[in-house]
Amino acid sequence: MKPIRILHTEWSGGWGGQEVRIIDEMLSVRDRGIEVFLASTAHAKITEKARAHGIPVFTLPFRGNLDFKTLFGLIKIIKSENINIVNTHSGKDTWVGGFAAKLTGAKFIRTRHLSNPINPSRLNFIHSLADYVITTGESVRTNMIDHNRVPADKIVSIPTGIDEQIFNRHLYDRAANRQKFGIANSEIAIGLVAILRSFKRHDLFLDMAKELCSRHDNLKFFIAGDGPKHDEIANQIARENLQNKVIMTGYLQRPVELLSALDIFTLCSDRFEGVPQAVMQALMMELPVVATSSGSTGDLHDDDNFQLIAPGELAPLISAVELLINDPHKREYYAQRARSTIVKKFSRSVMTERLLTIYQKLGCKRPSFFL
Where are the domains of the chain? Predict the structure, then answer.
């Protein structure tokens, strides 16, 4: 039986949770016998990452929704590589990728990663043409059913799966990693791992850090990640004289090492989140977490496994984090409840199995060793 062959498309040049999800999804289904390909721009970070993992990559301009050069390029790829499914991920590539799939007879899957509403105009019809829509959070799924004319039986929420074999605190030397990141035994380390974009609200994280440092002298804060707001965040740190208290690590190849060294994890986003990978990773690592309810973050909240607070407000953020600073028993309470729900519902294996089920629904048979 011939394997399923899937072409993923992504025009964005950045490297954040969305791009990480795409690569991880491709690798997870490849491990189960699916052949995967990527079409992206020549200078996109995801192009480099895909090639590093041995994924065949085709580069196209993706200059706009009606970029005919990209459209015909995708049609050529679909035909020459015998593609069964085109899976698009962002705005521009969804239009050209969707049309290319329809013109060639390939199945069309649209994955929606962000939680911000999609223009409900009937001119914005591309999503309703998809054979299947995947969202990364339940609230995104509901919005697309209600406002974008996507049939409820053709859309499903599949959050990004976290590899429980990697994000396991018992596999890491916490003391060595605390030493690596310069965290003293007496210090409480509080971290945020996220692409440096405005909706992640690093400014709110720094306002929290300033206030808490005025009350406690044993705190150290970490901002891990890179992105367009780097200089703005660095300037705020300097302006507030927080250079000795807040460390910007830059992009970490292995964020799990920082997570193993932290005492508290936070997410401050005020919009655009699906189900945030960083929160899932922190919970998988049995960290006490304070996260805003932006997007579908609430999908992760189960059996009081972390503190879920309102987005965009400083006072609740300070109050929730300070509760954990002051009470080590509370930190242990949340740590003990953190991992189990993520393993059961949001692991990499769960994500992979749900993806394979969708491919089967679209008429693409699984390889015989799945039957």
Answer: 5-161+347-370, 169-345
